[in-house]
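Curious: explain these tokens?
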Amino acid sequence: MNTTSRTISGIVAATALLGGAMVATAGPAAAASYHCTTSKHSVDNPAYGGVYADNFDFSVQLCAKRSSGNIYTYAKISWDGPAWFVDGPSEFDAARFHLQTKKSVSGPDKVVKWANYTGNKTRLEHGDYKGNGSYTTGVLKYAAGSGRYLADGFLQLDWDKDGKGYRNTTFSASPTV
């Protein structure tokens, strides 16, 4: 084998060895990744009874991860809304997503931290030209002890002109971490 071939072989071997080391160190980072569940619900506007479709089709991804003794949870809400009212009159008096970090226990899971995220009302009423949009909550951080934890939450919509306040739409919780 000539000198050039040995040099190239050495470089290839070193690259493979370093690449293996890089893959080996990627394990702990993968262990700290989010575990998520996505579920869907269609919600009808109770104040509208006209001929046009008025449902919002929601998809919510609830995610949790454990890292350095903390639990981190968040939600991503996406929707396919009715395009005919984009930028039209107000559809909602209010809208928010109620995110919860829960400790998994026998019986109902215990809420250990929660927050209401209200930034989705305007986005719901002013989606793209097809009525679609999305909103991602902030991340809740909870200093966890032993046990298993999860993300849970529900969408609260207060429809304009129906006089009934918030109506809850629930979604499937994340896997436990």
Remarks:
- Helices lie at 3-31, 121-125.
- The first helix runs from residue 3 to 31.
- Residues 3-30 have pLDDT under 50 and may be disordered.
